[in-house]
From TrEMBL, chains A, B:
Pfam families: CinA (PF02464), MoCF_biosynth (PF00994). InterPro entries: CinA (IPR050101), CinA-like_C (IPR036653), CinA_C (IPR008136), Competence-induced_CinA (IPR008135), MoaB/Mog-like_dom_sf (IPR036425), MoaB/Mog_dom (IPR001453). Gene3D superfamilies: CinA-like (3.90.950.20), MoaB/Mog-like domain (3.40.980.10). Coiled coil: none annotated. Belongs to the CinA family. Residues 4-170 form the MoaB/Mog domain. The lineage of its organism: Bacteria, Pseudomonadati, Thermodesulfobacteriota, Desulfobacteria, Desulfobacterales. This is CinA-like protein. It comes from the Bacteria.
Length: 418, 418
């Protein structure tokens, strides 16, 4: 079964926005054994859109189209689909009810232009949107079953997973289909090229397993795709391959079930019944933000002090002004006092602190942009402090590397202290 | 002049890698006045590649193709281009010399398979690679001048900028080209649908201006695209249209030059020589993270207290434990004490505080998920406190709405106090 993926929208056509939907959809389809032949992108042009849908209709068995389902005059996917399929647009009363219900739920008035979103091709089967206002739909164009989803990634992924992939699964037929498992290893420490290089030889060692990478800076996810008829055998084989990968990456794999770093930290703290407080300078609140993205983090996360100004380091964390003056904020003595100070003052079991230079300004020859000190203070095993020198091109990348490295240092401490 | 962009490679076809090259190239071409009609992606398949090149050759004037110039058996772009153009592959001795020189420079032996990279279509004009081993090239396929570049972003961008774009510029001819300006208005407060609805009538009022939207939740960017020959006239017309938009959106436009909210906050604080401290509960560090993403924020941002646990609200901000007990953390009395506490204790001119329920747990009938109290404390004009009820489906969305609304409340206070 051949599939094509079409992303629509002027922001993608002109490159204002990078298309991440196509890669996501391609991975999901390929994971089901569907062969993705081609991706296309066109803009908000009715003629162009209808024409490319007809082309796809003559070539592929399945297509997934994203974008163009919104309420504005740029949103033309339903109209183009109807045109390509040679059917009229009709008002779907159920779709209209769903849209009205959506605006009701979020407590906002429904606009006139939202009515447009209930106009679907006559032959279309509606795909309800559990998150936003735009319903998706699928219909036959030429010989191709075309699925139309919103361009908003959150909505697209949900509807793909809950409606589209199961439908495609049915289309693939109910013959004894192989069992597929995907194992996701989350790693941090090597970039994508280096990770791939370290895993050279995987194909020879595991010719039965497809290896994939997903860059989620600063993480790299390694994905193992296995297919067979015996689930237990597959899981054992997956464990073997995961072990091989972990050994080659020398301790940089921090989860073998695709967890994010904050999720792992949360799990480790809960397992130990321990609490955490954070002192952030250069990371500016990013570590706390990541930690508090995890539902239930109030079980272990007490507080953070974002001590951007040096005065705040003294006032909120008890860092000695003399030490600040003598060594500067980005130094070992200061990071030790920050980590210990935040732990002691908050009553937490663990204190984590960062102090560095995210750039672009603020660097010196002795302390260049990209330098960070990280401290982890424990109740029973003292305080560890380390410095790292990164060289990323921009402030945001440096902040993310600093924050991720800090969490990795905390993770290793938690794993030791268990 | 019409262009198409083709990225090649199985990692992109299968979605293992997200294609960022196409967006980059599209932006550059559109910026030169070339209209990018379509993007395509195909895998490492000679037949498919040659076929799609012939299709492009019949449709476009210019094409930029990335990938498939490496030394492995998957690298088929030169062969496919030759096939599509109906010419043989020939060894380019200058290309071979260049590749040998590259390996010489990096002190590694040249592989046999690297010789393959010097085999180019007979009619091709070589584009030397200043960074890697693979030369690019351009040739005519059908009516289309097709440029072939490596897939490695760093190499692609350099060769695009140094060779391809100047060549395209020559092809465009030296006639008077129109001037293009893009005005970006950043807004917050209406969703994308409501924004579009409020701007109904724009096309009738300004038929010479193209209107676009960019959803950057929780912001909506409104983009005005003008084209003409007189820059001053265009700028005046843009101002007029921006004024019309601002009036329709009732104060929700916070920047007429595409600034982000934290950039605007930073600018307003610097203009007033004022400083800021933040107390975050439910937003967990997100506000501070956003603020500190702006280079130079240390000029006005002193510190933040992420007081996730109630005890931390008392310890770090001086919030009375009795008030916490009587009213709960998510209440007006507590938010006032948080905002005033953080301002007083930090010595900042302005204090901003948030306390709410991001979900999915923690809601009650009286205080549902999505409720947030926001306080802004000033030195001379007292403290304002307001509550908002949002109903977003997930924790991250609620956090972002809370944080953005808090910054907007601060922005309005700053604009009043000037």
């Amino acid at each position: 079964m051949i599939a094509e993926i079409l992303s629509t929208g002027d922001e993608i056509r002109t490159g204002t926005l990078v298309d991440t939907n196509s890669a996501y959809i391609a991975q999901e389809l390929e994971g089901m054994g569907v062969r993705v032949l081609r991706h296309l992108t066109v803009g908000d042009d009715l003629t162009e859109l209808a024409a490319v849908l007809q082309e796809i209709g003559s070539r592929a068995d399945i297509a997934v189209v994203t974008g163009g389902l919104g309420p504005t005059s740029d949103d033309l996917s339903a109209e183009a689909a109807a045109s390509a399929a040679g059917v009229p647009l009709v008002l779907d009363p159920e779709a209209l009810r769903w849209i009205e219900g959506f605006f009701d739920r979020i407590g906002r008035p429904m606009g006139d232009n939202n009515r447009k979103q209930a106009l679907l091709p006559e032959s279309a089967v509606r795909i309800d949107n559990p998150i936003g206002s735009a319903p998706g739909f699928h219909l036959l164009i030429g010989k191709c079953r075309c699925f139309f989803l919103p361009g908003v990634p959150l909505e697209m992924k949900r509807m793909l997973r809950e409606s589209v992939l199961p439908t495609i699964d049915t289309l693939l037929g109910s013959g004894a289909r192989p069992i597929r498992i995907v194992t996701t290893l989350s790693s941090f420490g090597y970039g994508e090229s280096m990770t791939a290089e370290k895993l050279t030889g995987f194909d020879a060692a595991f010719p039965d397993i497809r290896l994939g990478y997903r860059a989620k800076f600063p993480e790299v996810q390694i994905k193992l795709y296995l297919e067979g008829t015996d689930r237990l055998k597959l899981e054992a084989r997956s464990l073997e391959a995961a072990g091989w990968v972990k050994e080659r990456l020398g301790g940089r794999v921090f989860s073998d079930r695709g967890e994010s770093m904050p999720e792992v930290i949360g799990r480790l703290l809960v397992e130990r019944g321990a609490t955490l407080a954070v002192a952030e300078s250069c990371t500016g609140g990013l570590i706390s933000h990541w930690i508090t993205n995890v539902a239930g983090s109030s079980r272990y996360f007490l507080s953070a002090a974002v001590t951007y100004a040096n005065e705040a380091k003294s006032r909120l964390l008890g860092v000695s002004p003399e030490i600040l003056l003598r060594h500067g904020a980005v130094s070992e003595p200061v990071i030790r006092e920050m980590a210990e100070g935040v732990r002691r003052m908050s009553g937490a079991n663990f204190g984590l602190a960062t102090s560095g230079i995210a750039g672009p300004d603020g660097g010196t020859p002795e302390k260049p942009v990209g330098l960070v000190w990280i401290g982890v203070s424990t109740q029973e095993n003292g305080t560890s402090a380390r410095s790292f020198q990164f060289r990323y091109a921009n402030r945001e990348a440096n902040k993310q590397m600093f924050a991720m490295t800090a969490l990795e240092m905390l993770r290793r401490t938690l794993c030791q202290n268990s």
